[in-house]
Design a protein that fits this description.
With 141 residues, this protein is an alpha/beta fold. It is 35% helix and 23% strand. It has one domain: Roll (CBS-domain), CATH 3.10.580.10. The longest helix has 11 residues. It comes from Deinococcus budaensis.
Length: 141
């Protein structure tokens, strides 16, 4: 059975909490990614997605020089690299996560997305996660 280590994208793009919305958006453009992990030292303090930037900042006309922490989703849920892919898919579904930071010994080493589940597992795990993520949230943002 594959583990998160087998399907994760290694080499995360991260920023510190003082990064601005413009800096993060530029990183997303340059790296062709949709999410950036905000790190407080070695620990993730938040995650920000391209959707967060649009819905939480641009839509309200906020200044692009604002610190990214004003728009991140805090309490980042992570799973260890040796976690079974099916278990991770269930957690992603239950928590309605589209992206899951992967850790090894408590240190962030990669990211798994719904796309990774679909492409790298032959579709076996993505159906579980997609069904959960697609459900309306009890607490919409």
């Amino acid at each position: 059975m594959p583990t998160l280590r087998d399907i994760m994208t290694p080499g995360l793009v991260t920023v510190d909490p003082q990064a601005t919305l413009k800096e993060v958006a530029t990183l997303m453009l340059e790296q062709d990614i949709g999410a950036v992990l905000v790190m407080d030292g070695e620990h993730p303090s938040g995650i920000i997605t391209d959707r967060d930037i649009v819905v939480r900042a641009v839509a309200y006309g906020h200044d692009y020089g604002t610190a990214v922490t004003d728009y991140t989703t805090g309490s980042v849920f992570t799973m260890e690299a040796d976690t079974d892919v099916q278990q991770a898919a269930r957690e992603m579904a239950d928590r309605q996560l589209r992206r899951l930071p992967v850790t090894e010994g408590g240190r962030v080493v990669g990211m798994v997305s719904l796309g990774d589940l679909a492409v790298r597992t032959g579709g076996s795990a993505d159906e579980t996660a997609l069904q959960g993520v697609s459900q309306p949230s009890a607490d919409p943002q």
